[in-house]
Every structure is written in structure tokens, then in C-alpha cells.
Design goal:
The chain is an alpha+beta fold. The chain contains eleven helices and 14 strands. The protein has a six-stranded mixed β-sheet, covered by helices on one side.
Amino acid sequence: MKDYKMLKTTLIFSVMMFFMGCSEVKQVESPEQLINRVNEIYTEVAKAYPNEGELPPANRLDSLYCSSEWNRMLAVIDSIDSKLEGEMGFFDFDYWIMAQDYRDISADSVVVEKMNADSASVLIQLHNFNHVTPVRLEMVKENDLWMIDNFIDVSNDYNLKLNMKKYIEVDEAMIHTDSIGLHKNDGVVEVKLSADYPVKGSPLMVKALRKFIATTMGADSLLIDNRDSLLESARRYGYKQMMSLRKEMMYDNETDIPTYFISYDIKKETDCLRYVTYIVNYADYTGGAHGSAYSTGSTFTKKDGKCWEWNMLKDTKSNGFRQLMKEGVRDHFKMFEKQDITDEQLKDMLLIDEDVNHIPLPAWAPYLTYQGVAFAYQQYEIAPYGAGIISFIIPYEKIMPYLVPEIKAVIE
């Protein structure tokens, strides 16, 4: 009898717990309730844009009708954009109206595509001027209210939140720098140094780039974490170089030797999610009619800090690649001549013995840019001094077959 009573009590308790659990199951609202909520929101949107050219108060619609996650991301993007000087920033259109300008804003034809207790997808037809844009709203439930968590322009397949995440991800991977420099002239040798010195980013990349700056300038690599000591070490190295060259001139009984000059300007050129490119501009003067100069770049992949130069390319002796180089050189001269240039004319502009279909590769390595792979020939390398530095960019869609797999992987 005692066991029977205990079993009975256990069963009653289990049934009570079952019904208590059932009462906590979230109730899914009907699609009609969600449609009403979307119509309510866009009625307020239409009121917020009453007259052509009159913008609503900043962030009012977002704070009222968008999710906490959406507003958090907006705050992060606003913080990123506030650091840009003279640049537009992330948003180049108003996602509430899917345009930059507006007139007669309204939304209709609301269709619930999918829906559960906490999330839903709704398709609306957004009217602006006489144009209709299908917009998918991704909704979430917060404090018993449906809030917009994402805007998707269906007609252009543009997912706003996805691109916001990428924008934030790129900023987090950015290499932040300070400008450092040193300039000394004692009348015998002038040394001028400047660089974009990494101060924030992944420790791997900060170390790799500081070491690159030191090595390029000839500084002691043990001093990379002290910018002042790094610059002074590089100055001493450059000064010693120039003094050595001056002494050679003295051996030739030169009596009126001008001030020798050496300069390094190292700049961050391209900073992407997966790679960063630095440009080195070098110049010197050691007597004569004019000095010498060169410009080159180095690309570093952020996952490992590896430096990529000629090793980013393959099949560079192939006819296809050589044709790309010829057309790049031709494009450089076309910019100045402002007319088409034949192969014969191009040959006359160059200081090469080879056929223009086999122009020698540059002495300095290529590097990655936003638009494609950049190449540069230095003074006298393939053309007279007056031609300057012959440089051009081969777009990624053309040069992709000649990139090694590791570089293809970092290019979006």
C-alpha cells in the first residue's frame, strides 16, 4: 500500500509538471497580427517622410522599430565612420526608403514568408516616387513586439545586415597606424624618413609590419617597438651610406661636393580583411644632374604575416601573361599621348632590344591593390628618364589565372 501511494503521488506530480511546461510554451501569433505590425510600422515611416527632401530625425525609426542587435551594429558603424575624414562611410542610401531621395512613401502587399515564435520573414512592396522595390524584412520578437532585424533589397539581392557585418569585420581587421618621421640635415648629408607605423591590429601583423619598416630603412630590428629608437637607428644607417659614397667622390679629387640626400617614405596603401599592402617611396641624390628614385610595394597576408612579392604569381613567362604586361605598358603611355599606340610606336618609346611581346618584367615586385595587381618599372628600366616611373594595374578578372591559390583565396 505504501508503494502504491508513492507511485500515485509521483504520477500526479509528473502530470502537474507536464501541464506547467505546456503553459510556458511560447504562443505563435497569427500571420495577420504580424502583417498588422508591419503595416503599423510603415504607416509611421510614411509620416516620417512627409515632404520631398525633408529628412526624419536621425535614428528615430531605428530606435522605435528595429531590434537591439540592429541598433548595436548601427552604433558600431557610426563609430567607424566618425574616424573617416572626408569620406562617405558605409551608408550611401536610406534603407527605410531604399533610395537617396523620396516622394510619396508607402508600403503594401505584405506577405508573411515564414514565421515562428521569435522570428519571421516578411515581404513588402515599397513605393517611392513611381518606383516599387520588393523588400524582405527579417523580424525578431523583443519584449512581445515584432522588430525589424534586417532589410534586404530583393530586386538587387542586397542584404544590408550581411554587408554591415562585413564592414565591421574589415574594420576590426584593419591595421591602425601613426605617422612617424625624422628629418636631419647637417649640410653634408640630409636624411628624411617617414612611415605609417602600426599601433593597433593583430599582434602578428603589427610585429611583421614594424619589422618590414625597420628592415627597409636599414634600422636595427631589435628596436621595432620603440619608434624613436627605430628612426634614429635608420638615420644613422642612411647617413653612413651617404658618407661612404661621399668619400668615394673625394678619392676622385672632387672639391665641390653637394649635400647628399636619402629619403624613405613608407605608407600603408591598401588595407583589406585578409591582406595589407605597404608602398615604399625611395629617393636619393649623390651628385650629378639629378637624383634617383624608385617606388615599390609589398603585400602581407593577415592570417600569417607572410610577405608576397613575385611569389604571388605563376606562369609569368607564358605568352598570355606577357600580353597583359605589354598592354599595361601601352596603357601607361596612352594616358599621356591620349591616343591609341601601335606596337611599332610602343617599341620606339622603349629602351629594350626585345620584341614588345616580351617586355622584361620589372625589377621590383608587384603588389595587391583594391582594383588589381600593380606593377611599376623604375627610371631607365625600360624607358628614358623622361618617361618617369611606368606603372599600371592589371584588373583581377584578367590576372586571376596567373595568381597562386593562396593569393586567390584572399581576394574577394
